[in-house]
Amino acid sequence: MLKKVFAAGMVLAGSALLAGCQSGGSGAGGTGAGAQPQGADTAVRESELRAYCPAVTVRDGTAFSTTYERGGEDDPNRVIYLSSISETTRSCNYGTGSVTVAIAGRVVPGPKGRAGNVALPLRVVMLRGDQVLFSQLYRHPVSVSDISGATQFVLTVPDVPVPGGIDRGVTLQVGFDEGNGR
């Protein structure tokens, strides 16, 4: 009997925890990123719920970037920073026909790590089939102050226009671009 009561209590506690996670609040008295004020102007239409918003993928081979000491390329003992992309997301605005893209990740100091600033070369690309609709390189600044652990970063690229409108042919790709900067 005690096991059944305990199990029921755990189910209720888990349900309450999950409900709290889904509430959209930030927990610090503010509103969460998804929270919107109630009202007729903020009502979500069924067409928006069913609308397509392209997922963001990380291009093969571009999820990591390594910063070496000058002259120490490919020497693991001369790594200053190792950067990685850990999460991506997007939000579509059907009224303006644009997409906001966000990239999150970490910068971890290597054996030659030091406090300072690093400019991460992050590229956002929008394609429709083989046609490039948008491609932009961002030198995202990250300030590393703690060399004993990881420093997190978030790059948000707002309102990327989608020529011809958002449809299933549109794809979004992100990644580190250590090439020539074009």
TrEMBL record:
Signal: is it a keyword of this entry? yes
Q: Keyword Signal on this protein?
A: yes
According to UniProt, the name of this protein is Lipoprotein, hypothetical
Q: Which residues form the signal peptide?
A: 1-19
Kindly state which keywords UniProt assigns to this record, in alphabetical order: Lipoprotein, Signal
Q: Which domain of life is it from?
A: Bacteria
